Amino acid sequence: MDAVVLSIGTELVDGHLTDTNATFLAQELASLGIRLQWVTQVGDELDTIVRVLRRAWEDATLIVTTGGIGPTEDDLTREAIATLLDEPLTVDPELAERIRAFFAARGLVMPERNVKQAYRIPSCEPLPNPIGTAPGWFVRRDQHVIVSMPGVPREMMRMWREQVVPRLLPLLGGGVIRFRTIRTIGLGESLVEDRLHDLITRNMPRVATYAKDDGVYIRISVQADDEATARRLLAETEREIHQRLGQHVYGTDDTTLGAAILEPLAAASWSLALVEQGNGGRFTALLAEEPAASHCLRQALVLPEPLPTGPSLREHAHQSAQAARAATGADCAGVIAVRFGASETVDRTPGEAVFVLLTPQGASEREHTLVTHPQEFRRRVTLWAAEFFLFALREAAAPARGSSATSA
Known about the structure:
single chain; 408 residues; alpha/beta; Molybdenum Cofactor Biosythetic Enzyme, Chain A; Maf protein; elongated
């Protein structure tokens, strides 16, 4: 099966929004073994959308659209698909009632213009949207499939996984398709690909890598005749990846980097006092948004960049860690200290970062220097710090976890 992805919305064409939906769908289609022919963005103009849909109809058997199914006059995806297929648009009373109920559950009255979102054509199967007002469409016509989903990424992703993929699977030859995402840190995408080269180049299970802000993700896709076989293939591939990448794996599927860092603390029943200087609180935010932070994070201080006078940044970081542990009584103390030097241009600013971790097992430290824009340096510092604290806490907490298991 070949596919085309259309992202609809003038805000995309104007460059006001980044088309993250197309990136997500390209990865998902590849995981399903569907060949993506092309991707494009289209503004909110009916004639243009219809013209692009006609070209997509000629090039592919699966057309996936996102956006343009809201309640406003410039939401024209439904009208464009109806025009393409020469089918009438009518209001589906059941859909209209669902939308009214969505508003009522939130203590609101549905604006009459939202009735537009209940329009459908005869060949359309409506797709439920439990977290939004816009139902999707699943259209089958003349050996083609057209999928229309909301442009809001959260709504689109959920609809794709819960509604669209189960409807596509029978068209792909049946069987069971299962996915798993392995999250890694501390290795670049090219190095991950080198270590997994034979897994990536084989046909099944499919393995693909994606560089993300919090590391490199590895997506495993399995197609099998039954659930048991699919699970076995997933487990075997995941085990092989773990063996090759070792400590660089920090989680699977929805595991966040912050949760992975806090996990050794929680397992050892340790608390952490954190001091972050000159980094804008980026690392603190990474931890603070996790549920485990309420138990593990004793205190977090976000401070401005240390003054250039006084002790070296390394000495300053160690002193700050000792002071934080003494003041809070925490089991562990961590410091992220960032300092910038003078530069003639902002893009060539020398940056220095020092990480220090004190635990009941001892002290760990790491230093980084780089000449770049301060914003880029802070972005990297956050990722470097995450890697440092993850590995150091795992190593330090291992004996404590072992003794806890023995005493239990």
